[in-house]
Write a structure and sequence with these properties.
With about 525 residues, this protein is an alpha+beta fold. The chain has ten helices and four strands. The protein has helices at about 25-40, 50-55, 95-105, 105-130, 180-245, 255-285, 320-345, 390-455, 460-495, 525; strands at about 135-150, 160-175, 350-360, 370-380. The protein has a four-stranded antiparallel beta sheet with strand order 1-2-3-4. Helix 8 runs antiparallel to helix 9 (about 460-495). The longest helix is centred in the middle third of the chain and has 67 residues, at about 180-245. The protein starts with about 25 loop residues before the first helix and ends with a helix.
């Protein structure tokens, strides 16, 4: 399996001679360079990034240990619904509208988009360091001088004069990137931009999954509430039968009290189900960026069971998982920063120039003839800094190795999530089938016990126990069905989208983001 690999920062060969205006450096400059290089230890070569299978200690595989279950779920499910974003495979129009609404208005996504803008701005700051820096300045000064000891005959004090001075200038500074330090910093900033873009896509995937999961939870809460209310009504009907038998002297007070307790317990369960429904409704409203007023209603029936997982899903679909893409780009950023820290121990060459005009009249500043100018070149080499730069190199390389370890750990976690979801898919289907059988048996047992109680063949305890078992079985079935849907959502998140690569266009690849960030101003509308 080939996971995405960020382009390596290009190595630059060190120049054999420094040339200025096409001429060889003077003897003085050569001496300064030799002295500077003598004070710098030769930096180590770039540490090559190990291959992915080495990072994962040989645990990289091309297929999953858990195979997707064959066949179809009971209740329907088509195997052809694999195109489009993953939430559309559930064929729920209301869910589709909710997810799109959340992707447009969720505040966490807006914050993530703004962080991407900040990363793009930092990248531009790093890129500007490679360009000449030009500054213009102007200055006015008024000065009075007193010439002590030069009295004018007839005057009462020393000679004095007032001067006006106007200055205008243009300063240019440029640090030549001799060894590629500035280029490495730019590469690190660009990798952070790509990682931030992947973070945005991961946030979009997470919000879509949260809305989908919450919607299924709301549908289950609605059905659990309906089940509790129907069960309460059934218990009340049974209690009426017991009351009639009690009034007729056919049943004791104990039977009546047990039936009434069953009704109260069921009514309490309905209140709890109603509270759970409102909490879930508020969770969805929060994801949609709305005020959590519990005004979202679950309409319609629970969607059909999801289509079966196609067999033979390749393991390389994880290459499009946004969090793995972000981790890979952060590895590249850490490698570039390590290179920049290493090259910071080498000398830097800067060129500066300035030109301007000075005069006691403002009108003279408009003259294009520069009366003052300067051109200079400087070489700065670290000779002694108390070990600061060496420590910075050690820190940068430690961060680089930590980023590689984090990537490896995240990759193994992704495998863990996929394997768990695939395994849960089969086990939950088996559990759902057993619970369906339990519901049918419990309903039959309740009907039979109720008939026998009316005929006086069984006690009320057996009837109440049958009713409780039926309620537990039906409630467990609803919960297991929602858990199956949740497991499918978890599988899509673990795979980074739908089963077929390239079908979930709304969650673009981080590689599609232009390094110049021309798309950054459009991010708000693209959410």
């Amino acid at each position: 399996m080939q996971l995405p690999r960020h382009p390596r920062v290009p190595d630059r060969a060190l120049p054999k001679a420094v040339r200025i205006h096409g001429r060889k450096p003077s003897a003085q400059l050569s001496f300064l360079l030799v002295l500077a290089l003598a004070g710098c230890a030769s930096p180590a070569a770039d540490e090559e990034r190990p291959e992915v299978d080495v990072l994962l200690r040989g645990e990289l595989r091309d297929a999953w240990a858990t195979e997707a279950a064959e066949g179809e779920y009971p209740g329907g499910g088509s195997t052809s619904a694999y195109s489009g974003p993953f939430w559309t495979t559930f064929e729920d129009a209301i869910l589709n509208d909710l997810v799109l609404d959340a992707l447009q208005h969720n505040h966490d996504l807006v914050a993530s988009a703004q962080r991407l803008r900040g990363a793009a701005a930092r990248s531009q700051v790093a890129r500007s360091s490679r360009m000449p820096q030009v500054n213009a300045s102007t200055r006015f000064a008024r000065q009075k001088n007193v010439f002590v000891g030069l009295p004018i005959p007839g005057s009462t004090g020393p000679l004095s004069a007032v001067f006006n001075q106007w200055n205008a200038g243009l300063d240019v500074a440029w640090e030549l990137d001799l060894w590629g330090k500035l280029a490495a910093s730019v590469n690190a900033a660009d990798s952070e931009v790509a990682a931030s873009f992947a973070d945005l896509q991961a946030a979009r995937l997470s919000i879509a999954a949260q809305v989908t999961s919450a919607w299924f939870a709301l549908r289950e809460a609605a059905e659990q509430l309906d089940l509790a209310e129907r069960t309460t009504a059934t218990y009340e009907s049974s209690a009426e039968v017991v009351r009639d038998r009690f009034d007729a002297g056919l049943s004791g007070a104990l039977d009546l009290r047990l039936a009434e307790a069953n009704v109260a317990t069921s009514a309490a369960s309905a209140v709890s189900a109603r509270r759970n429904y409102r909490v879930t409704s508020r969770q969805i409203e929060l994801l949609l960026g709305r005020f959590p007023a519990a005004e979202l209603d679950s309409v319609g029936e629970f969607p059909a069971l999801p289509p079966v997982v196609p067999a033979g899903i390749p393991a390389d679909v994880l290459a499009r998982r946004p969090d793995l893409v972000a981790a890979e780009h952060r590895m590249a950023a850490a490698e570039a920063l390590a290179k920049a820290a290493r090259l910071d121990r080498w000398p830097s060459l800067s060129l500066t120039s300035a030109g301007g005009r000075t005069s006691d009249l403002f009108e003279d500043l408009l003259d294009g003839d520069f009366t003052i100018w300067s051109i200079a070149g400087s070489v700065a080499a670290p000779l002694f800094d108390g070990g600061r730069r060496r420590a910075a190199v050690d820190e940068a390389y430690s961060n680089m190795r930590a980023a590689r370890a984090q990537f490896a750990g995240l990759a193994l976690k992704a495998f863990f999530e996929v394997e768990n979801s695939l395994d849960a898919e089969s086990l939950l289907r088996e559990r759902l089938a057993l619970l369906s059988t339990a519901v049918d048996s419990a309903r039959s047992a309740t009907e039979l016990s109720d008939e026998q109680y009316r005929e006086g063949l069984v006690s009320i305890e057996l009837v109440l126990e049958s009713q409780r078992r039926q309620l537990a079985a039906e409630s467990s079935y609803l919960a297991a069905r929602r858990e199956l849907f949740q497991s499918r959502v978890d599988l899509h998140v673990a795979l980074g989208g739908n089963f077929v690569v390239g079908t979930d266009a709304p969650l673009e690849s981080a590689e599609s983001f232009d390094a110049d960030r021309e798309a950054a101003p459009e991010l708000d509308s693209s959410l």
